[in-house]
Every structure is written in C-alpha cells, then in structure tokens.
Design a protein that fits this description.
Chain A: This is NADH dehydrogenase. Chain A: Keywords: 2Fe-2S, Iron, Iron-sulfur, Metal-binding. Chain A: InterPro entries: NADP_DH_HndA-like, NuoE-like, NuoE_dom, NuoE_N, Thioredoxin-like_sf. The complex is a heterodimer. Chain A has 7 helices and 6 strands, in the order ββααααβααβββα. Chain A is an alpha+beta fold. The radius of gyration of chain B is 25 Å and the shape is globular. Chain B has 3 domains: 2-80, Ubiquitin-like (UB roll) (Roll), CATH 3.10.20.740; 103-210, Alpha-Beta Plaits; 214-573, 3-Layer(aba) Sandwich (Rossmann fold). Helix content of chain B is 35%, strand content 15%. Classes of the chains: A alpha+beta, B alpha/beta.
Chain lengths: 176, 597
C-alpha cells in the first residue's frame, strides 16, 4: 500500500494516504503509549511491515521516542522491518508438518529463492517465513502462499509452485 | 515506620525504604552495579537487572535484589552469608564472561565499577566461557559507544530518557542480542543526540566514553611551528583536583595553570575571560530586547534564553525548531574565546591563524562537537582546534609525569586570562543568569548593585524562578538544569504561556560542574554540591566580580570590537541556529496537536 520503496537505501517515501492511515490508527488507540504494541500490530497488518519512517511517525504521534518504538519492534519477533514479498511464503513447522519433512521443503525453498527465513527476494516477489501449525495437520506438510494453502507438499513440488507465481499465472493471493 | 534486622543490626526505616537503603543506614554497604541514585537531583536508576545486590531474606526461598525489595516489619536480612557471597561472585563472573577482558587498555580502567567489583570479589579466574556479544563501534565527534562492553545496567537509558528527555538511547533487540542503541542502530551523529554526555557520566564501564584527543594535543605541543594557546572552563578548576585524590570541592586554579604551562602551552588563558565577554554581549542583547519589549515593539521575542551550552543548543535545534529566535545569538564562551584568539590575538602576535592552535579544557563532551560545527571555522580552520575534558587533562598531566600536588599556584597569562567573579559562576546552574543580572542591573538602572550576590538565583532544584527588582521593574527569571526541566520551560514558551523575561538553561544536572567530561561522581551527588560551593568561593575571592568591570574586556572593545553588539562584535561573537528536526517533527501542525490533547 502507498509506500514507494528505494530498495537500495532501504528508504521509503510515505504517501499522504499512508501517513493519514497511520495517524488514524494512532487516534483510534487514543495516542496511548500503553497501546504501542496494538498500534504496531494494526499498522503492520495494513502495510505488511514497519519501515523506519512509519516508526518515526508513530513515535511522533504518541509523543514518545523513536528509539523506544524501535526497541519494541525489535523485541517482538512478530514485528518486521523488512517488507514482505508480493507472494509471502509461509511454511508450517508444527509437529505434524515437521515429522513429514517440512524441514526439507524449507531448505528447498531457501535454495530455490536464495533467501533465508525472514528475508525477501531482491525482486520483491517472494518472502519466506515459518509458522507453527495452521490447523491442517491432515494435509501435512503444509505450505501457504499468501492465504492459498498447499497440502502434502513434496520437495519436488516447490519449483513448480514458485514458477507458477513467477510466471504471473496466479493473481495476488492476499487480500487487497 | 518498619523495623528490620540486617546482618544482626536492627534498623528502623520509613515504609517504602528499600533493603539496600536500610542497610546503608546501619553501615552495611551492599555492592551494586546497575543501581544509581543521585539524591538531591531526584535521579534514580534501579531496573533490578544486574542482581549483584542480592541478599538472603529469612523465610524466602530465593535471594532478593535489595535495591528493589521494600523493607518490611520484622524482616531478617543477611547480606553476606556464604550463599549470598557465592551467588554474588557467580553473578559477577557471568557478567565478566560476556565482557572483553581489555582492562589494561580500556579508557575506563581505574574508574570502572565492574573492575572495582571484580577486585572486591577477589576474582582470579573466570569459570564461564562462550560466545560474546559483538557490536559495531560508534564514533561520534564527542562520544564513543563500544557496546561490547555494555552490561545493560540501563543507567544511560534513564539519563537519556527520563532526565534529559532526549530519547535517543533505548534497549533494542532481545536476549543475548539486546543492546542499548539509538533507533535503527544508527550512529549517534545521525540521531538527535545532544552530546550532553550524561550517559558517559553514569556509565559504570567503558561502553560510553569521550572521544580522546590527548594525542592530537601532544602532537600540536611538540610542533615547533605552532603557537598553542589553552583556555580552561570555569567548572574545571572546581573538579580537576579529584583526579589527583583531592577532596571534592578543592579549588586548583593556580596548580592547573602551572600544570598547563609545564605541559608546554605557550599561553595559558581562561575561558572565564570569554565568559565576561559573553555577559557583555548577552547582557546587552537582553537589555536591548527588554527595552524594545517595554516600548511596545511586538516583533521582539521574550524571554531571552542563554546560549552557552552546546548540548542545549542542539536540543532546541532538534526539538523546538519554531523557537530558534528565542535563544541569545551570543556564541558560547568557548567559541567566543576561539574567535577572539584566532582573530584579535593572532593579529596581535602577528601569527597566521592556521599556525595558532586553540585547545579548550572543558567539563563537557558536547564542546567537542561544538568546536566542529561548520559555522565556527574560517576556510576549514576551526576557531577551536581541540577540546579535552577535565578527565583527559588529568591523563595528560599524569602522562607528563607532573607532580600535581607540589606545583606552585600560578596565574593565567594576559590579556585573555583576566576574569571576574561573575565569569567563574558560569560553572554552576544559576551562574550565567546571575552574572548577566549583575551587569544588566547596573547598565539598566545606572546605579551600583546594593549586593553582588543573588541568593535567590542559587540552588540545586531542577527548575527555579526568581524576580529581581530592576529599579522598579520586576524582572522575572527562570532557571533550568537538566534537559527534561528545560523542555518544560520551552513548552511553556511554545504555548505562549511563559512569564519570564530571561531564562538560563544548562543541559547537565548541576550545570557544568556536573558535566559529562568531569571526574566521575560514581553516583555520589554531594560531590556536585561541593563543586558548586567551590565555584562560589572562587567568585568571592575575586577582586572584581562584575563582567563589565573587567579591564581587559574594556581594552578588547576599545582596541578591536568597538562596543557590544557592534558590527564587528556581531561578526565574531554571535551565531545562528539551525533546524535539525526530522521530517515528521516539521510537519506537526498546531491544530493536529490540539485535537490530540
């Protein structure tokens, strides 16, 4: 959403709409410092990540230091400062998926995309994260691209799934 | 009141007292590391994080950190049982296991609380080894952050956030990776850091230190092509003695001048001379603004704020860009001295300014930053070349094998060593405004002061105010030390609610006597009080106690500058301020802020 990203400098330019949205969320929580985590949650759900410029804006709105905001963002692993890819890939590493070979799948994705967990490909298409149990253990191992679920994934399927998105034959699976 | 027993001693304390404080009352000194309390400044850091102050409390399963455990009635405490001693030793060893063993070359060696603790615990061997946390070293013009040495005591965070409200330092990341850092792990020089140095002043280890320039000064002194002049700030003479084992509050003005001469400085001058000059300019500016204001000139802004403190100047540039026309345009004494030395004095000596080296001895680390500001240089040649802190000067004296104690008391050189009592008190909170009032009163009322000392402007409270009768005109004066207190006065000004005509602001608690470059107080705030008394004593000892009566200041105006606020004075002695706020600080408009509140 309305963020222009300068990939080289990791600098982003927030649009008027983006600024207004962050301000609105801060207002919704009454500018309470104690609501910082909830505000970060709400903002990240809108933008997918929390770039420095957004943290600066939140700090200003709540009248707290940006170092404090950054401290909270870096403390909780849920928050991320790296933008998710257009197609965020999540792999379930819960018990059932794990025993059915999720780790091999994870390594295969890493190899195919040449990124680590928590990272995004330089072209901005894919990002990779792991999660714990999506409640579909019967389909283990489970892989998600956005909100689309792939069950009983084999190592050999990985290349096919990725190339489908690369070719653009599947539309953006996340909610706009 | 509650009654408890600590190491078999019974003590009665008010409810709410911690076990640590109760123990101190009966002479039991429980070792601490992260804990710090500066009594008369209302500054306290007790995250209960280091666990060094653990004690055994009868009836409790676990050992309790005494700094955050409230004393209760009937409590039986043991501070030195075998269990406590063993645990405390293990804790210190664990802290040391993630600490670089670089004591021999560490800037903090000899002044390090962790080192002292290791000595006290008799640690001869480290039983734990493993991964160590590694961080990038951050070298700003004033402060060096070497976070490998950080023990996460959070004292710097308390100073930066609660006391100074600068908000640059915060604990970031998690677990083993956690570290105190500016946002986005940027360097201090890219942040809104004011370089006040209060983080350095309280850091128990060598994680935060000043940028050492003693080497550069030695090189200048040994260069036969250079004429090296030195200036010493008022607060240095009231604290330098501590570095040589003297009682806090011992004045060492004469010995300091003698030591500087033996170090090889060609001219030993005094920043106090420039402080008198500051009063001439700032006092005249105050009267000018005041008279215009009284005559109904609506373009003139009051209050006028003092501008001697570089950390405070940087603070207003970052945080209150709309108020940049409020501080006096007068340069700080350090920079006035540099400008006069590199122009007037260089001309007098017939020396090119590039061959004249100006060294400052300052109680401050922000002065290291101030000297490097672009506007204080001519063709890349800075008015002040190097700044040493009080601590660095003591290192230099020790290095040169000078026996400080047996030095005779010597005088400063002339003309820029002549100063009045008014200039000496610049070193303490309330001093600059008192010096300004002494001069402004006489210039305004054309009558001699009935009493030179203004007790109503003195003290240690963070925010003070007084009204001085200027021959029928009540002059309202505000004083703040500590940037958190300054922020309160600035917010009043921004909201148009300020009642003051003039305000003095100093960044450091206590003023320059508590500066980030002073000998470490190790949490003993009475040291600041003693330094303050020494400053006032020096004032009383001076034959001349008003800046406008300094004969060499007269000479300087007559020979060179003309009169206060003249064009030449403006060019050399005044400056301007810059908006350093970030994008979002700029765009905050008033209506937005209003609907928030």
């Amino acid at each position: 959403m309305e963020i222009t990203r300068d990939l080289k400098n990791h600098k982003v330019q927030l649009s008027e709409n983006a600024i207004a949205l962050v301000k609105k969320i801060c207002r919704r929580f009454n500018y309470q410092e104690g609501e910082l985590i909830n505000i970060l949650h709400a903002v990240q759900s809108q933008f997918g990540y929390l770039p420095a410029e957004i943290q600066e804006l939140i700090a200003k709105e709540l009248d707290i230091s940006v170092a404090k905001v950054y401290g909270v963002v870096t403390f909780y692993s849920f928050f991320t400062m790296k933008p998710k890819g257009k197609y965020p890939i999540s792999l379930c590493m819960g018990t059932a998926c794990y025993v059915r070979g999720a780790e091999n799948i994870l390594n295969e994705i890493k190899r195919q995309l040449n990124i680590d967990e928590g990272e995004t490909t330089p072209d901005g298409l894919f990002s990779l994260s792991s999660l714990r149990c999506v409640g579909a253990c019967g389909l283990a191992p489970v892989l998600l691209v956005g909100e689309k679920v792939y069950g009983r994934v084999a190592q050999a399927d990985v290349r096919k799934i990725i190339s489908e998105y690369k070719a653009g034959c599947l539309t953006h699976p996340t909610k706009e | 009141m509650v009654t408890l027993t600590i190491d078999n001693k019974t003590v009665e304390v008010p409810k709410g007292t911690t076990v640590l404080e109760a123990a101190a009352k009966v002479g039991v000194e429980i070792p601490t590391l992260c804990h710090m309390k500066l009594d008369n400044l209302e500054i306290e850091n007790k995250p209960g994080g280091c666990r060094v102050c653990l004690v055994e409390i009868q009836g409790r399963k676990n050992l309790a950190p005494s700094c955050v455990t409230e004393a209760t009635d009937g409590m039986i405490v043991k501070s030195s049982s075998i269990r406590v001693m063993n645990t405390r030793r293990t804790i210190v060893e664990l802290i040391l296991s993630d600490h670089p063993a670089e004591c021999l070359t560490c800037a903090k060696s000899g002044n390090c609380d962790l080192q002292s603790l290791a000595i006290k615990m008799g640690i001869r061997e480290l039983h734990f080894s493993g991964e160590k946390s590694v961080h990038r070293e951050d070298k700003s013009p004033a402060i060096i952050r070497d976070m490998d040495k950080c023990i996460m005591c959070r004292r710097c965070e308390t100073m930066c956030n609660e006391v100074q409200t600068v908000g640059v330092l915060s604990a970031v990341n998690r677990g083993f990776n956690s570290v105190v850092s500016p946002a986005f792990e940027q360097d201090l020089q890219d942040s809104a850091c004011t370089y006040c140095g209060q983080c350095v002043a309280v850091c128990p280890v060598g994680a935060l230190t000043e940028r050492d320039q003693t080497g550069a000064v030695i090189r200048a002194l040994s260069n036969p092509d250079k004429t090296v002049v030195v200036q010493t700030a008022p607060a240095v003479r009231a604290a330098l003695g501590e570095e040589f084992g003297q009682e806090a509050g011992t004045l060492v003005t004469g010995k300091m001048a003698a030591a500087l001469r033996r170090l090889g400085f060609d001219y030993v001058f005094d920043t106090d001379f420039a402080a008198d000059l500051t009063i001439m300019e700032e006092g005249t500016e105050l009267l000018d603004r005041l008279t215009r204001h009284l005559n109904g000139d609506s373009t003139v802004k009051l209050p006028i704020l003092t501008s001697c403190c570089p950390a405070w100047v940087k603070f207003i540039e970052h945080n209150f860009p709309s108020l940049l026309d409020v501080p006096s345009s007068a340069k700080s004494p350090q920079q006035m001295f540099g400008a006069v030395a590199k122009n007037y004095f260089a001309e007098k000596l017939n020396v090119d300014r590039k061959k004249l080296v100006v060294v400052s001895i300052m109680p401050c680390v922000a002065k290291k930053y101030e000297r490097g500001r672009d506007e204080f240089a001519v063709d890349g040649n800075s008015d002040v070349d190097f700044v040493l802190t009080t601590r660095e000067l003591s290192h230099l004296i020790k290095l040169a094998n000078i026996d400080f104690h047996t030095l005779p008391d010597e005088e400063f050189d002339q003309p820029m060593g002549m100063s009045t009592g008014a200039s000496v008190i610049f070193g303490t909170t309330g001093g600059v405004i008192e010096a300004a009032v002494r001069t402004a009163y006489e210039l305004y009322t054309k009558k001699p002061l009935p009493k030179v000392e203004f007790e109503e402007l003195r003290g240690m409270e963070g925010l003070r105010h007084a009204t001085i009768d200027f021959g029928g005109l009540p002059l309202h004066i505000g004083i703040a030390h500590g940037l958190g207190n300054a922020r309160k006065l600035l917010e009043e000004i921004a909201a148009g609610r300020s009642q003051f005509h003039a305000i003095e602001i100093m960044s450091c608690p206590g003023g320059c006597i508590g500066g980030g470059g002073q000998p470490f107080h190790h949490g003993k705030s009475d040291i600041l009080k003693k330094r303050q008394q020494a400053i006032y004593q020096e004032d009383r000892n001076k034959p001349i106690r008003k800046s406008h009566e300094n004969p060499f200041i007269y000479q300087l105006y007559e020979e060179y500058l003309g009169e206060p606020m003249s064009e030449k004075a403006h060019h050399l002695l005044h400056t301007k301020y810059f908006d350093r706020s970030t994008v979002f600080e700029q765009d905050g408009n008033a209506s937005e802020t209003d609907d928030k509140k």
